[in-house]
Design a protein that fits this description.
About 65% of the residues lie in helices and about 10% in strands. The protein is α+β, with helices and mostly antiparallel strands and about 900 residues long.
């Protein structure tokens, strides 16, 4: 199949119009034009014609439709071994497909028959040879793509290589190999998925499901059988234990042990109460004895402490009198030093006051001098302020918005254009006088100038000297230029808003405003120079200087003598203050010593008074000591008596806790026996019920049947697993054999590709991927490089050359298909692209190649048949 023409109407950017590419010939055909010219649109339209049914609107068809809508139509003329035909498809409204014989003009097929005819031409749809050789813009064909695209193109390449290679190595590289592998895959994938997992709904999955069902049933029944046997064993053990617990002799022995333990506990409790009473009496007696001993000891200690305090109080009185005497001397010395400080400070104050009055007089004289100057500056600043205010008022009256004036100027220019356009539409009169006849024709009193156009709106009267009057009428209806009227009204409104009568007046006011603004800036600058901090601050400074100048200006004294006197007085103040500081620590120390002595004496007196209150009158103290001693002896005797009564009871004490534990143990043994008997009876009832239920259901017979069914299902699964393993092994063996013979299998395409590669590269070899049948790596300069690591230009060149090689194989197989490249060489440098051009011409000897490119300068060197787009109108 070869293309001879392509036409499209209402496709994408060609909305509402048609274009055609005629004269497509054998060999290399080139359509080189700028971007947005429609090259890719032609490619997509041709692709849709061959691969998209006219009845559907998939995304590829939707992209053909212009934004304005309509019905895209694509038409192509082709030549085959059977003749020349015209293929036509229209999408959306009026959808149709037709095939016409160009030789006879006969309609060969339409609708579904036309689709079938076109499908027969491309043999395999987008996965067929045309889909393999037609290269879209930006796609090299050897980049990573989806699994579906890779698998589809791989099968096309396999089919092509097998048909070209024939039956070479019948079981390792040809069609029989592919058929056997396909049959093996079909059988295998009926049972499992590609990852050898059971296929849903397949026989292997059903066998596994059956085996799992019997396995679950066998496990459940086995559990029930085990449970039944466990229940029988548990019932036997429970009956034995129940007989042991209900033995009368054992029950009588347990009850006798409880009675003996109860009696022993009562005896222990009685002895424990007697012992507690005796120990309580002994503890009370010991408490009273200890209290009497403590009171006697405290009384004797207080007597001794009172004697010591009287001696210490006498010594503290002596230290207090001495501290008071020292304090009186320190106070006298400190008061004398303070008096000297006061005299020195008075002298310093008088000298400082005199110096301050002298400084004030000097400041007053200086302020009076500055006050005159500031008042002159204030008068000048007031005049400048008045000028600023007058200028601001005048500027406010003159100011116009610059933006509005600019709009008015633009409107004036627009009006000139509108008036000129209106004048251009009026009829005109032009008179060219002969020599000596100038001025002989007038309009009113004015002569018509020579060789000048005169326009008129409705009518015109010409006075021709010596002949008469000529009336001219345009007979055109009066027309209203709405744009001119709107512009005139807008101009009038803007002039009224601005308060001027013309654009020139507005510009004059703007100029006057600029001059007034300059004058205002100068006045503001003068005001700033005269009063940098503002007029209020200047007023404040004048008031301050006026207050200063009002002082005593006539005070007479020598400032230097006053300063010398002040310095001497200051030194005297410092000296007297230092002397006062020297006496201050002595006074503070004396004060602290007095406080310490008074505090110590008072503390001794307070403690002595407290002891006297405890001991009582001094005459009664000996008799009280004798009484306390007798009380202590009596309480000691009573304690010894109570302790003697408690000793025998402690020696014969019973183990109360042991007796209670024994009684609790014997009672718990009886209770446990009774509780266990009740539990055993409940357990026996449950076991009897379970045993009776499983015996009635024949659990063991059902379990044996399930075991047999499980064995049969397992054997069936094993047979499937054996079959799967054999098929998988066979596929791997076939793949191994195919891999071993891959070089021979790929020999046709390598044979076609090597001469093309030699045009571009020196000393290079290519290794094909046995899975994708595409270039996998290249070897040059003794180094292997993966294709995906090559530059974009080299990958692009390998892609195009590989497709050219497959195109030659298709032609040798009797299926010539055009190679169409849509901007497929965008990364190639100048040298390589010329070599690619040579490769294209080499392959075009018996192959049609169509090249679309936006690189006009570069592809000018390609040569070949240069195609052009031309307008085309489809027949009605």
């Amino acid at each position: 199949m070869k293309l001879t023409a392509l036409r499209l109407h209402n496709v994408k950017r060609f909305a509402g119009r048609g274009v055609a590419i005629e004269g497509i010939s054998d060999g290399v055909n080139v359509l080189s034009a700028a971007n947005e010219y429609g090259k890719s649109t032609c490619f997509e339209a041709l692709h849709a014609l061959f691969f998209q049914p006219h009845t559907g609107t998939p995304k590829a068809v939707q992209l053909l439709r212009p934004y304005s809508g309509g019905n895209p139509m694509v038409e192509a003329d082709i030549a085959t071994d059977d003749g020349r035909y015209r293929l036509t498809k229209q999408y959306y409204g009026g959808k149709r497909a037709s095939v016409t014989d160009l030789a006879s003009g006969r309609l060969v097929a339409q609708a579904d028959e036309a689709e079938a005819f076109i499908t027969g031409l491309i043999r395999g749809g987008t996965g067929g040879p045309a889909g393999l050789l037609w290269v879209r813009q930006g796609i090299t064909g050897i980049d990573k793509r989806s699994n579906a695209e890779e698998d589809s193109e791989k099968r096309v390449r396999e089919s092509l290589l097998s048909s070209v290679q024939g039956e070479v190595e019948a079981l390792t590289g040809g069609r029989r190999m592919a058929e056997i592998a396909a049959a093996c895959e079909e059988e295998l994938y009926r049972l499992v998925t590609a990852t050898l997992r059971p296929k849903a709904g397949g026989r292997y999955a059903a066998a596994l499901e059956e085996r799992d069902k019997w396995f679950a049933l066998e496990q459940r029944l086995a559990t029930e059988v085990t449970t039944l046997r466990d229940a029988l064993d548990k019932r036997r053990i429970a009956l034995t234990r129940l007989a042991e617990l209900e033995n009368p002799d054992e029950d009588a022995a347990r009850r006798a042990a409880i009675a003996a333990a109860d009696k022993a506990l009562e005896a222990a409790k009685s002895h424990s109460e007697a012992l507690k009473a005796a120990e309580a009496e002994a503890a009370l007696a010991a408490n009273r004895r200890d209290t009497a001993a403590r009171i006697l000891s405290e009384f004797r200690a207080a007597l001794q402490r009172a004697e010591d305090l009287r001696h210490q109080s006498s010594l503290a009185q002596s230290r207090r009198d001495e501290a008071n005497a020292n304090r009186a001397g320190a106070i006298a010395a400190n008061e004398q030093a303070i008096a000297s400080v006061q005299v020195a400070e008075q002298d310093e104050h008088e000298a400082r006051d005199l110096l301050a009055r002298l400084d004030a007089a000097l400041l007053a004289r200086d302020a009076a001098e500055r006050l005159t100057d500031l008042r002159q500056r204030l008068d000048q600043a007031d005049a400048a302020r008045k000028q600023v205010e007058d200028s601001e008022a005048a500027l406010a009256l003159l100011s116009l918005p610059q933006q509005t004036v600019d709009q008015l100027q633009a409107l004036e220019i627009e009006l000139v254009g509108l008036r000129a356009a209106q004048a251009a539409s009026l009829p005109t009169l032009r008179l060219d006088y002969v020599d000596g006849a100038a001025g002989s024709i007038t309009i009113g009193a004015e002569a018509i100038p020579d060789a000048t156009d005169v326009s008129f709106a409705t009518s015109l009267r010409l006075d021709i000297a010596g002949i008469g009057t000529l009336a001219l009428r345009s007979n055109r209806p009066p027309q209203s230029d709405q744009a001119l009227d709107r512009a005139e009204n807008k101009k009038s409104s803007m002039l009224a808003v601005l308060g001027v009568d013309s654009l020139a007046g507005a510009h004059q006011r703007l100029a006057a405003a600029r001059e007034k603004n300059t004058e205002l800036n100068l006045a503001r600058q003068r005001l700033t120079d005269l009063a940098p901090k503002g007029l209020p601050h200047l007023h404040e400074e004048i008031a301050r200087l006026a207050a200063l100048s009002a002082g005593n200006l006539e005070l007479k004294a020598d400032p230097e003598q006053v300063r010398t006197r002040l310095a001497a007085a200051t030194q005297q103040v410092a000296a007297t203050r230092n002397s006062a500081r020297e006496t201050q620590p002595l006074r503070s120390q004396a004060d602290a010593a007095v406080v310490t002595a008074e505090t110590a004496h008072a503390a001794l007196q307070a403690e002595l008074a407290a002891l006297d209150a405890i001991l009582g009158p001094e005459n009664d103290r000996p008799s009280r000591e004798i009484s306390l001693t007798a009380e202590h002896v009596t309480q000691k005797s009573l304690h010894d008596t109570a302790e003697a009564r408690a000793i025998p009871l402690r020696a014969a004490a019973h183990d109360l806790a042991g007796a209670e534990a024994t009684l609790n143990r014997t009672r718990s043994v009886q209770n446990a026996a009774e509780q266990q008997v009740g539990q055993l009876r409940v357990t026996l009832a449950d076991l009897n019920g379970h045993i009776q239920a499983r015996s009635d259901n024949a659990v063991e017979e059902a379990w044996r049947e399930a075991t047999e069914s499980l064995a049969a299902a397992t054997a069936r699964v094993e047979r499937f697993e054996t079959e799967i393993a054999v098929l998988d092994r066979l596929l791997k063996a076939l793949a191994t054999a195919r891999s071993a013979a891959r070089d021979l299998y790929l020999k046709p395409v390598i044979t076609e590709l090597l001469p093309l590669i030699g045009l571009l590269f020196d000393d290079i070899s290519i290794v094909f991927d046995e899975n994708t049948l595409l270039p996998q790596s290249v070897r040059r300069n003794g180094q292997d490089e993966d294709v995906d690591r090559l530059s974009g230009g080299m990958r692009e060149q390998l892609s195009v050359l590989t497709r050219l090689a497959f195109a030659r194989l298709l032609a040798r197989d009797g299926r010539p298909t055009p190679v169409i490249l849509d901007d497929a060489l965008v990364y190639s440098d100048d040298d390589r692209i010329e070599r690619m051009f040579d490769a294209l011409h080499r392959q075009s000897r018996d192959q049609q190649i169509l090249v679309f490119s936006c690189r006009q300068r570069a592809f000018a060197k390609l040569g070949g048949n240069v195609l052009q787009m031309q307008d085309w109108t489809p027949p009605a």
